[in-house]
Write a structure and sequence with these properties.
Number of helices: 14
Radius of gyration: 26 Å
Bound molecules: adenosine monophosphate, zinc ion
Order of helices and strands: EEEHEHHEHEEEEHEHEEHHEHHHHHHEE
Strand order of the largest sheet: 5-4-3-10-11
Shape: globular
CATH superfamily of the largest domain: HUPs
Number of strands: 15
Length: 483
């Protein structure tokens, strides 16, 4: 464990701050999870790679981690303000399927991406619809003092808590221009706690409540599951930067109401000590939009032949608070970097695992790594410390192995599980199977050994026609790749 104190950037204060746990020796983290109406795009997955790196860092620092990620299967409207339809109801209607089937299918797809990206399982996946009774209790407890009823539902009056909107830094009416007006709302920023089913309509998901049949507002679930599973205040709440604007300010307002807490100059009144947000993955051509047909999913990267951990590498190469631009070239570069690392790690494969890491030759890299991770999770710098450690010469392989293993528990690249052959670009629609390619290459090697260059060239051309580039003299020693 490193001596450098862990500093994390708190979106609430817009300052880095030292992590001091609420409960000694523990770290309790809540991450806003996916709305399971569709596949997650790779931008969504950046949010979970970030939360995973945070969790791994807390574990590495020696804290007992309790991480909760929720699964939103009700309440998230097509607009983060209170306009539009429930995303789940809309998709279920489009596909003529039950919401439960939709939720199950996309939850499993999300879990597959979690696994592919080496994201550790949290202590609990909490599903919103499992907490409807608790949401009703929570809403009842704040209804009298903080809410009012109008035709479409029960609304939270944002003027009843101190410092509403501080997290977003947007409390002016201007800032709230992005929130659609709903008839009967007292203030533009007020939001639904409970959405009544409109008269004459039947929703697939609806429950009885003191305010009529309906469904909870989206923000309610995270307040309730955070409180039930982690207790207020817990340590860290995470999400993508869009949540800093509406979802989290509203969660905070509910939490203040529930606790009877004062203003936000004391962060604990918000329900969590630290609020952390990852910046966006952006893509200029619109391929991240879920309405664009073939959008950028982890599975699409895999189908195009890229190992999913190349995408994890791409995320780690940027600081989580920087915007990250996606491009296929960028992904290719991340893959090459990962390959280079894996090739060096393969040389340590026979060394025993789990040795000591305190060899003087590695001290500068170990401390650079620890400093970087402790400095608001500076993964780009931590990666260079790992590469520097790999480059150390004339040391016992078991020590080097221990150092790299240590660093990889935090970065989560699975370096000792990956083999370089796993990282070959291998598109789904490739014409040749790997065994066939290898057999042809052996035949070519023999031809060359016999100085039969005509045959050797013919094999090479034939392979090229089938989309296999033979890479003689490739500095990575790659031998071939699918083009
Ligand atoms: P959603 O399923 O829409 O609730 O989003 C899941 C998570 O992805 C949330 O934490 C969002 O803030 C985050 N998110 C959405 N779009 C992006 C993006 N382009 N880059 C990074 N994170 C994103
Ligand atoms: Zn949430």
């Amino acid at each position: 464990m490193s001596e450098a104190p862990l500093k994390l950037f708190n979106s609430l204060t817009r300052q880095p701050q030292e992590f001091v746990p609420v409960h000694e020796g523990e770290a309790r983290v809540y991450t806003c999870g996916p709305t399971v109406y569709n596949y997650p795009h790779i931008g969504n997955m950046r949010a979970y790679v970030f939360a995973d790196v945070l969790g791994r860092t807390l574990s590495w620092k020696g804290y007992k981690l309790t991480h909760v990620i929720n699964i939103t299967d009700v309440g998230h409207l097509t607009d983060d303000g209170d306009a539009g339809e429930d995303k789940m109801e809309k998709m279920a209607a489009e596909k003529a399927q039950s919401i439960w089937d939709i939720a199950q299918h996309y939850t499993e797809a999300y879990w597959a991406d979690v696994k592919a990206l080496n994201i550790r399982e949290p202590a609990k996946w909490s599903v919103a619809t499992d907490y409807i009774d608790e949401m009703l209790e929570f809403a009842k407890s704040i209804a009298d003092k903080h809410c009012y009823e109008c035709e479409t539902g029960l609304y939270f009056d944002t003027t009843t808590v101190e410092d509403y909107g501080r997290l977003a830094r947007a409390v002016t009416e201007d800032g709230e221009g992005r929130i659609d007006a709903v008839e009967g709302k007292r203030n533009a920023a007020d939001f639904a706690i409970w959405r009544k089913t409109p008269p004459g309509e039947k929703r697939q998901m609806e429950w009885d409540s003191p305010w009529g049949k309906g469904a909870p507002g989206w923000h309610l679930e995270c307040s309730v599951m955070g409180e039930k599973l982690l207790g207020f205040p817990f340590d860290i709440h995470t999400g993508g930067i869009d949540h800093r604007e509406i979802h989290h300010p509203n969660e905070i307002a509910q939490n203040q109401a529930f606790c009877g807490c004062g203003g936000l100059s004391d962060a604990r009144n918000s329900g969590a000590n630290i609020w952390m947000h990852n910046n966006f993955l952006v893509e200029r051509s619109g391929k991240m939009s879920k309405s664009s047909g073939e959008f950028l999913r982890v599975q699409l990267l895999i189908d195009k032949g890229y190992h999913p951990l190349a995408y994890r590498m791409m995320c780690l190469q940027a600081h989580y608070r920087s915007e990250l631009e996606f491009s296929w070239d960028g992904l290719g570069a991340a893959l090459t970097r990962l390959k280079r690392i894996v090739m060096q790690v393969e040389r340590l494969a026979d060394a025993p695992s789990g040795g000591a890491t305190d060899h003087p030759k590695f001290a500068p890299m170990m401390s650079a790594f620890a400093d970087a991770m402790s400095d608001d999770l500076n993964t780009p710098v931590a990666l260079t410390a790992l590469e520097d450690a790999l480059a150390v010469k004339k040391v016992d392989a078991s020590i080097k192995r221990a150092v790299i293993e240590h660093m990889d528990t935090v970065l989560g690249l699975g370096l000792f599980v990956l083999a370089r052959k796993d990282l070959r670009v291998r598109p789904k629609d490739a014409q040749m199977m790997e065994a066939e390619i290898e057999a042809e290459l052996i035949r070519r090697k023999e031809a060359r050994a016999n100085k039969d260059f005509a045959t050797s060239d013919a094999i090479r051309d034939d392979l090229a026609e089938k989309g296999v580039d033979v890479m003689d003299g490739d500095p990575l020693g790659w031998e071939w790749k699918l083009s």
